[in-house]
Amino acid sequence: MPVIHKSTIRQARRAEIRHKRNQAIMSAVKTLVKKVQTAVAEKKADDAKTALLTATSAISKAVTKGALKPNTASRRVSRLTKHVNGLTASRS
């Protein structure tokens, strides 16, 4: 049980605001990643490339906002890029 104190009340309020902001950022990132994954699953190379650009941009922004750690973001971008590149390589 936290101590009822002015500073702890303020900190709890700030934590709730950060939590809501991080949830919104991560929800947007997940949506964009799913768009890339569906484009790859449907073997639409052009759609996958454009979706990949927007997804990587959103992931990078999530890092700058502190919602994602840099290594996690790098790993996600790398895996998405690998899938999209595999799609274009099999198409040639």
Give a summary of the structure in a few sentences.
The protein is mostly helical and 92 residues long. Helix content is 86%, strand content 0%.
Overview of the structural elements:
- This protein has 92 residues and is mostly helical.
- The chain has a single domain (6-91), classed as Up-down Bundle (Methane Monooxygenase Hydroxylase, Chain G, domain 1), CATH 1.20.58.110.
- The chain has three helices and no strands.
- It has helices spanning 6-41, 45-65, 70-91.
- Helix 1 (6-41) runs antiparallel to helix 2 (45-65), helix 1 packs parallel to helix 3 (70-91) and helix 2 (45-65) packs antiparallel against helix 3 (70-91).
- It starts with 5 loop residues before the first helix and ends with a helix.
Share of residues in strands: under 5%
Structural class of the helix and strand makeup?
mainly alpha
Which architecture name does CATH use? Up-down Bundle
Q: Count up the domains.
A: 1
Number of strands: 0
The total of helices stands at 3
Helicity level: over 70%
How large is the radius of gyration? 18 Å
What is the CATH homologous superfamily assignment? Ribosomal protein S20
- Describe the largest sheet: none
Topology, pairings included?
Layout: H1 6-41, H2 45-65, H3 70-91
Descriptive terms for the model:
92 residues, mainly alpha, Methane Monooxygenase Hydroxylase, Chain G, domain 1, 0% strand
